[in-house]
Design a protein that fits this description.
The complex is a heterodimer of chains A (about 400) and B (about 260). Chain A is about 75% helix and about 0% strand. Chain A has 18 helices and 2 strands. In chain A, strand 1 and strand 2 form a beta hairpin. The longest helix of chain A has 30 residues, at about 125-155. Chain A is elongated. The model of chain A is unreliable at about 405-409 (pLDDT under 50). Chain B contains 10 helices and 9 strands. Chain B has helices at about 45-50, 95-100, 100-105, 115-125, 140-155, 170-185, 200-205, 220-225, 225-235, 240-250, and strands spanning about 5-15, 20-30, 35, 60-65, 75-80, 160, 190-195, 205-210, 215-220. The longest helix of chain B is centred in the C-terminal third of the chain and has 16 residues, at about 170-185. Classes of the chains: A mainly alpha (about 400), B alpha/beta (about 260).
Chain lengths: ~400, ~260
């Protein structure tokens, strides 16, 4: 395989692997722990390169795992025997282990150490690739079986424990797998940028979907696409380092997700707010027309809202715009009466049940009327005993389909 | 007579050098609905967490259903305190209810139609079926508690330990939850509930435990809801007892007593 093909395959596999474990890193709020592991394994990696002879990925991983284990023991020791909080303990362990790693690198200058420090995806050989492919295949083959238990242990470990799930074993296995993913990702992007591979895809995916399974799937795809894009750009512009480019591509994907993601993305949220504002303006206009028809409070023609709002109301058959002054259609009249009913019911509820002072209720109801649906309205009417007058003495229009006093007179 | 469903003997627990529970002896009969009461910091949550093995006691022992916890896993239901749940976690109400069936699935199994049915039945019973697809973070406080109760129901345990299932709940939901707990008790389950509200405690529970560092009173609700006992539990800690215990714990850890 050519160097670029190797790099491309490695990028995709690393992206998939990190996307999977990164999802759990993000939902378990342990991004800092991931960072700690990537730094803590460095002394082990360097030791393997110095004394392990050939750069065998299994030996590198074993030494890295040993160092990572040492790191988490140190971490646990600090937490158990001092009053330090986890963030300080993480920072302490991370810096000490990284310092040892860097010192070892400059003392022994083993070949291949640079790849772990700064990331050098092109330096991966066939053996690395086979190892990476095995790890990825194993993860995704097991995924359907481990996903549920891992979710339960991540979400509510105390409950998992009383169910009899081996929480400790599952957590240990997760840490071990995460360490493998981190050691692999280090070779692609370097120690410091491992966090980008782990956290960024999952963070982006959270803007796309509310479910964990889909978050995980999208994170895997995002990781693969971002890593591949980084490799491609670095290939086009020789001399640019791959690791930082991968991190930047992932960041760009994150920005896209944060902007356009359907789940709390910035733009969809704004669009939804704008739609609601237009709906409320339209409803306020219907209500104003209704009051105008009923000669209350003062029979002045209501101010016309923006053209878009009027067009929308006309399109929905709520108002008739054939005359110079827009007028309510029967459907519009019914909708407006519903709004007035909601408003006055809510005023009555606030005054009678919630014991609001009477001069506070109008403003509250002015906001609430747009958010009270038919079911909620029935609930309120049941609660306050279906009065016919609101606290200000205005009649409450009857529910749609029911003959009311106003229709009879 | 049957063995008590929950039994502790001389249970002492400390947290960061501070004694939280001291020599707690309890025996809660099977098939009862018990309220665990006490002021803030009295050790109510700590007692539950010790019972489920989250916290290791300094001394003493606890048995559930007549056995050590390790022997009855899966028959013990636990509803955690609201604060210990990450409400941003991407799971739906149905996902939470399905977790109650996890015991039957083993480590690797995947829920089938029967498990879904059980989870939906539980949601039906707690009035949460219409919200099955909702994410837990989007629910009101009362709905969140009911989702976790559904998980407990789906689990079909023999003893339930619930940490403030009535916290952050509106009056109607509170009545619904209490009715549900009564149904569970009538079905022979043992239910132990951490509760805050003294006004309702006498009405809601068959039995009450008044806790403040140690067991101040335990027995049928009417016997426990007596002024002098409540004053004893809520009238401040027994300063001398907790001071000496704190010195013991700190000294034992080799610190300045």
């Amino acid at each position: 395989m050519s160097a670029i093909a190797t790099a491309a395959v490695a990028a995709v596999l690393t992206g998939l692997l990190c996307g999977f474990y990164g999802t759990f890193v993000v939902v378990r709020r342990m991004a800092l722990t991931g960072d700690m592991i990537s730094h803590a394994v460095l002394p082990g990696v360097v030791a393997a390169l110095v004394w392990g002879g050939t750069r065998n990925p299994i030996i590198v991983l074993a030494c890295a795992g040993a160092a990572g284990l040492l790191g988490s023991f140190a971490m646990r020791g600090i937490l158990a025997h001092t009053r330090l909080k986890p963030d300080a303990a993480l920072a302490l362990v991370l810096s000490v282990f990284f310092a040892i790693g860097v010192a070892l690198v400059s003392m022994f200058q083993p070949s291949g150490a640079i790849a772990f420090l700064y990331g050098q995806i092109a330096a991966l050989d066939g053996r690395d690739l086979a190892f990476l492919a095995t790890a990825t295949a194993a993860t995704f083959a097991l995924a359907p079986f481990i996903f549920r238990s891992l979710t339960l242990v991540s979400f509510d470990p105390a409950f998992a424990r009383v169910l009899g799930l081996p929480v400790r074993a599952i957590d240990t296995a997760f840490y071990a797998a995460l360490t493998v993913a981190i050691v692999i990702a280090m070779q692609a992007v370097g120690v410091v940028l491992v966090t980008a591979m782990l956290v960024t895809p999952a963070a982006a995916a959270r803007f796309c979907t509310p479910t964990l399974v889909r978050t995980c799937a999208i994170a895997c795809v995002t990781g693969a696409v971002g890593a591949l894009a980084g490799v491609a750009i670095s290939d086009l512009r020789t001399g640019t380092p791959t690791g930082p480019l991968i991190a930047l591509c992932l960041a760009a994907l994150f920005a896209l997700a944060a902007l356009f993601g359907p789940h709390h993305g910035r733009l969809p949220t704004r669009a939804r707010r704008a739609r609601n504002r237009r709906r409320i303006a339209g409803e306020d206009f219907l209500k104003a027309l209704w009051h105008y028809e009923h000669g209350k409070p003062e029979p002045t023609a209501p101010a016309t809202p923006s053209r878009a709002v009027v067009r929308q109301l006309a399109a929905r058959g709520m108002i008739d715009t054939s005359a110079p002054a827009p007028a309510l259609t029967p459907a519009g009249r019914e909708a407006a009466a519903g709004l007035v009913r909601a408003h006055r019911l809510w005023e009555t509820y606030l005054a009678d049940v919630a014991e609001y002072p009477p001069d506070h209720v109008h403003e509250e109801a002015e906001r609430a009327e747009h958010w009270i649906d038919a079911a909620r309205m029935r609930e309120i009417a049941d609660r306050i005993g279906t009065p016919s007058l609101d606290p200000h003495g205005s009649p409450i229009p009857p529910a749609a389909g029911q003959p009311g006093k106003e229709d009879e007179t | 007579m049957n063995a008590p469903a929950l039994e502790t003997h001389n249970l002492s627990v400390s947290y960061r050098g501070k004694p939280v529970l001291q020599g707690v002896d309890l025996a809660i009969p099977a098939g009862s609905l018990t309220g665990l009461m006490g002021p803030n910091g009295a050790g109510k949550s700590t007692l539950l967490k010790t019972l489920i093995g989250e916290i290791r006691p300094d001394s003493g022992w606890a048995r559930l259903l007549g056995e050590p916890l390790a022997r009855v896993l899966g028959r013990v239901g636990y509803v955690p305190q609201r604060e210990s749940i990450d409400w941003d976690f991407p799971v739906s109400v149905l996902d939470v209810a399905l977790m109650g069936t996890a015991r039957d699935l083993g480590w690797f199994g995947r829920p089938g139609r029967g498990h879904r049915r059980r989870a939906m039945d539980a949601l039906e019973q707690t009035g949460m079926a219409d919200f099955a697809g909702r994410r837990i973070g989007e629910l009101s406080g009362g709905q969140q508690q009911r989702a976790f109760l559904a998980r407990a129901l789906a689990q079909d345990a023999d003893i339930y330990l619930m940490d403030e299932p009535l916290a952050g709940v509106d009056a109607a939901t509170e009545r619904a939850i209490i009715a549900l707990l009564g149904t569970m008790r009538d079905a022979g389950k043992t239910v132990v509930v951490v509760h805050h509200d003294l006004r309702t405690a006498g009405r809601y529970f068959d039995r009450l435990v008044l806790l403040n560092l140690r067991v101040v009173a335990h027995g049928p609700a009417d016997d426990v809801m007596r002024r002098e006992l409540l004053e004893k539990a809520y009238g401040g800690k027994l300063t001398l007892l907790s001071e000496v215990a704190a010195r013991e714990v700190r000294g034992g850890e080799g610190r300045e007593p």
